[in-house]
């Protein structure tokens, strides 16, 4: 059997996108485990986000340095693009998401947040001269029908309408922020390289997150029980570093729109992990929704033509650990 190095670039991209969705879907599990750690005052969301990004910082700094050693220095325009996308992506989207969660349930938040694949496609069509295929539209319809079915019950039990509108507005802003990051990152990755761009953008996000923490939280908030640090470390490695680079590598091979559509697996995976690891209930509505999402992912994953890109290596900086 041939190794993954000999797989077509498209197949590698699809596999990386699925693995990235798996890693990102575990973030909510780590967060719930951290919040459940017994202590007088539970860890707050800003502190937990700061710990997550701080633990990720050494990896992104090392990969960024490795990926930039033999490349030309970035121009002012390159730095401006990296800074803008870094602020939009894992800083802006995360902060807006946390604010929105103060007003609405996690289930409704996931439903709104995972509008970003639709928004990514719309941004590409409206601002980047791209065209969406019938298969992408079909996958989108199946996936979002599944997400809507899985969370329909939560929509029916909404509380204060004003609070729901405020929270939904913040989370929708998070989805828009991440969609612009994902759409803009495709051209940036091609110009700067997947590892270099991802590391630098995440460094921008990390600095912004830590600055937000310093401005709003006391330094004493960093003193947490050991289990909180372990969950934050797990979130940093398995739900930040690895899936972030996998997503960038997938975008390079199959594009931002298809990578975003496959990301629809995330909410369904979170539901299953929650049932398995946190003993959360699993309803038939959620199972039916998961089936539709999987059908959508299978539709977009079906190859319609040979991949045009011959690249089969992982990004620089990960190559040392993943390939010879």
UniProtKB/TrEMBL annotation:
InterPro entries: Diverse_Substrate_Transporter, EamA_dom, EmrE-like. Coiled coil: none annotated. This is Drug/metabolite transporter (DMT)-like permease. It is a multi-pass membrane protein. Residues 12-150, 166-301 form the EamA domain. It comes from Acidovorax soli. One of its GO terms (cellular component) is plasma membrane. The chain crosses the membrane at residues 46-67, 79-105, 111-128, 140-157, 163-181, 193-216, 228-247, 259-278, 284-301. Keywords: Cell membrane, Membrane, Transmembrane, Transmembrane helix. It is found in: Cell membrane. The keyword Transcription does not apply. SUPFAM superfamilies: Multidrug resistance efflux transporter EmrE.
């Amino acid at each position: 059997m041939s190794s993954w190095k000999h797989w077509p670039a498209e197949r590698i991209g699809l596999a990386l996108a699925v693995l990235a969705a798996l890693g990102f879907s575990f973030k909510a599990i780590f967060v719930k485990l951290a919040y459940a750690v017994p202590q007088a005052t539970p860890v707050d969301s800003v502190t937990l986000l700061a710990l997550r990004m701080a633990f990720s910082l050494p990896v992104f700094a090392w990969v960024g340095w490795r990926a930039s050693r033999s490349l030309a220095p970035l121009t002012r325009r390159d730095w401006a693009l990296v800074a803008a996308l870094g602020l939009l992506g894992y800083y802006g989207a995360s902060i807006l998401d946390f604010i929105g969660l103060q007003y609405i349930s996690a289930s409704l938040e996931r439903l709104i947040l995972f509008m970003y694949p639709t928004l990514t496609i719309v941004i590409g069509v409206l601002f980047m001269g791209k065209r969406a295929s019938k298969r992408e539209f079909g996958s989108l319809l199946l996936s979002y029908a599944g997400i809507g079915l899985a969370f329909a019950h939560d929509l029916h039990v909404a509380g204060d309408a004003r609070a729901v509108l405020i929270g939904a507005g913040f989370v929708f802003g998070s989805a828009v922020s991440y969609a612009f990051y994902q759409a803009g990152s495709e051209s940036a990755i091609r110009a700067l390289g997947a590892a270099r761009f991802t590391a630098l953008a995440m460094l921008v996000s990390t600095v912004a997150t830590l600055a937000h923490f310093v401005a709003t939280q006391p330094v004493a908030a960093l003193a947490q029980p050991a289990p909180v640090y372990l969950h934050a470390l797990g979130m940093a490695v398995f739900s930040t570093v690895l899936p972030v680079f996998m997503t960038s590598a997938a975008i390079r091979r199959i594009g931002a729109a298809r990578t975003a559509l496959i990301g629809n697996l995330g909410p369904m995976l979170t539901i299953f992990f929650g049932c398995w690891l946190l003993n959360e209930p699993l309803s038939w509505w959620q199972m039916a929704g998961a089936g539709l999402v999987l059908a959508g992912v299978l539709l977009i994953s079906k190859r319609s033509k040979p991949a045009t890109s011959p690249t089969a290596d992982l990004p620089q900086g990960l190559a040392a650990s993943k390939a010879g």
